[in-house]
Write a structure and sequence with these properties.
By secondary structure, this protein is an alpha/beta fold. Helices cover about 20% and strands about 30% of the residues. An 8-stranded mixed sheet has the order 1-2-3-4-5-6-7-8. Strands 9-10-11-12-14 form a 5-stranded mixed sheet. The model has no long low-confidence stretch (mean pLDDT about 95).
Length: about 280
């Protein structure tokens, strides 16, 4: 290991802190969260965020081991700096959906952010499926499928550290975005959540680290936020069922990228969705 600055520290738009021994949370000013998991042989960065500054120079201040990258899903705010890594893992369903829907979404999101578009060589990435493992030497991360937010969204589980990295599978404590092209319809999302909860319920004491950690802390920006727990996933299942049964009315209507979306809420769970996905 080669930590060159005392923790926690800030550098440019990044804030770094040690969450568990050898596991670092990296947050951007844009509310994106990445995680560096260090093993005895190599390290794994989970997602990259989209801060303008490169991410790898920062990672090099935390470890001198080879660093690979795993994406919880293929959205712009989780993968902008993929070009800095030689070995990249992505679920096969997101790779299959890349040309059809996810690639165009990433391009539009990049343009909308004002950042320079990048080429993503998805065909040469390492494709994952549920049950696969990424071995780092002293640590192993297990892949759990979490289809919904994208076709190939995943959870990455470290049983040795009793934690899970959940990306945007069911939000980070405030709401889940299910309005974007490529998101599952609500009935399919409910089935995926039910399968996810089988995994979550087996490990009720595991810590959950989402893709946007600040959204799990109550503030004026997120007045109804809650810490990310399995209870939110269970409430999300009930929320899906109540929306499908037309038992709830939206609490908010807004436009995202020109599309009309609706927010529904039940207990700790909230979802932002288009009418066409309510089926």
């Amino acid at each position: 290991m080669s930590i060159t600055q005392p923790l926690p520290f800030q550098e440019g738009g990044y804030t770094v802190q040690e969450l568990l021994p050898g596991i670092y949370g990296i947050d951007t000013a844009g509310e994106e969260s990445m995680y560096l998991v260090c093993g005895s042989e190599k390290a794994l960065l989970i997602d990259t965020g989209s801060d303008p500054a490169p991410i790898l120079p920062l990672i090099r201040k935390l470890t001198d081991r080879p660093v690979e990258l795993a994406l919880t899903h293929a959205h712009f705010d989780h993968m902008y700096h993929c070009d800095e890594f030689r070995t990249i893992y992505l679920h096969k369903a997101d790779a299959e959906a890349w040309k059809r829907v996810l690639g165009p979404i990433v391009f539009v999101s990049t343009a909308g952010s004002g950042k320079k578009p990048k080429h993503y060589d998805v065909k040469n990435w390492h494709l994952l499926a549920g049950g696969d493992e990424i071995c780092l030497g002293s640590r192993t991360l297990r892949v759990v499928e979490a289809k919904g937010h994208t076709p190939g969204s995943i959870l990455l589980v470290s049983d040795a550290d009793r934690c899970m990295f959940t990306g945007d599978a069911f939000g980070s404590g405030s709401f889940a975005w299910m309005w974007m092209p490529g998101c599952s319809c609500l009935s399919d999302y409910r089935k995926s959540l039910q399968a996810m909860c089988l995994e979550l319920d087996v490990h009720p004491d595991y810590r959950l680290f989402g893709g946007h950690r600040i959204q799990g802390t109550r503030s004026p920006a997120y007045p109804e936020a809650n810490p990310l727990t399995a209870a939110i996933a269970h409430d999300m299942i009930t929320l899906c069922e109540k929306i499908l049964a037309k038992e709830l009315q939206p609490v908010k209507t807004e436009r995202n990228f020109g599309l009309k979306t609706y927010m529904y809420r039940y207990r700790q769970a909230a979802i932002v969705i288009r009418r066409g996905n309510i089926r």
